[in-house]
Amino acid sequence: MGRIHRYGQKEDVLVFNLVAKNTREGKVLGKLLEKLDIIRSQIGDDRVYDVISDVFEEVSLDDITHSTLDGQYTHYNHVIDTRLTNEAIKQKIREQKASLACSKIDYKDARHLKETSDEKRLQPIYIRMFFEKAFRSLGGEFQQIRKSIFKITKIPDVIFNTLRDDYNMRADVRDILFCFHKSDESIADERLMLVCGNHESEYSTTSPAKLIDLQPPVKFAKTINPPDAVSVDDVQMWSFSHITKPHFEETADRA
């Protein structure tokens, strides 16, 4: 159910729970549903199904299991027989309305939960310590160019050869900036773009992943007519007007 009824689901989702009627589970569930239908018709409120979990909040899973599977009379059966009443359901509905109208937030517990979560997750400082030790042990070097932002100055031969031989990547990654914490905003607005042109001298952007496809094959299947060389100034002017300036304006609007 959780995989089909989630945020983004645009279609109605109907979930059916099937229970055999001639079983212990079916008899107990049948009695429960029968009482709920009677109460719903008497009080005229469908929210009887919204508060059912509150009615059974003191019932343990063992009680439900022993009742439905072993046929034992447990606290689960006792609640169905004695506490599942019109007044009890009305009271739970009133309590639910009150809690939705005015809820209290315990910021102390929220802070404790955040601190506990921070302690258990892998901190960026440990990721940085591991990267520094591993990268430098392979012969690599990197430097900090500004606060929290780093740049590779020397790529270890073993990494360079692996990228080239196993992944066919020959791009120079030394110009790539990186950080160790996702909250660092210093590089949030830096994007990698690949600008390409056609025979009509029209430019457009495409995925940087296309760099991987730029390695020429041993033999072309058909004759290739490469476009004429273009001026670097033309590319820079087009990139500024179509990429840098619009991106700058977009960033300024968000600030």
Strand order in the largest sheet: 1-2-3
Task: Provide the helix percentage.
Answer: 40-55%
Largest sheet: 3 strands, antiparallel
Radius of gyration: 32 Å
- Which spans of ≥5 residues are poorly predicted at pLDDT below 50? none
By DSSP (H or I, 4+ residues per run), the number of helices equals 9
Structural class: mainly alpha
Cα separation of the termini = 40 Å
Strand content: 5-15%
Round the mean pLDDT to the nearest integer and report it. Answer: 76
Order of helices and strands: HHHHHHHEEHEEEH
Number of beta strands: 5
Count of all domains: 3
Structural shape: elongated
Question: How is this structure best described in words?
Answer:
There is one protein chain. This protein is mainly alpha-helical and 255 residues long. It has three domains: 24-101, no CATH class; 123-188, no CATH class; 190-255, no CATH class. The protein has helices at 24-43, 52-55, 61-70, 75-83, 86-101, 107-120, 124-137, 157-167, 232-254; strands spanning 141-146, 149-154, 177-178, 194-197, 203-206.
List the helices and strands and how they pair.
Elements: H1 24-43, H2 52-55, H3 61-70, H4 75-83, H5 86-101, H6 107-120, H7 124-137, E1 141-146, E2 149-154, H8 157-167, E3 177-178, E4 194-197, E5 203-206, H9 232-254
Antiparallel strand pairs: 1-2, 2-3, 4-5
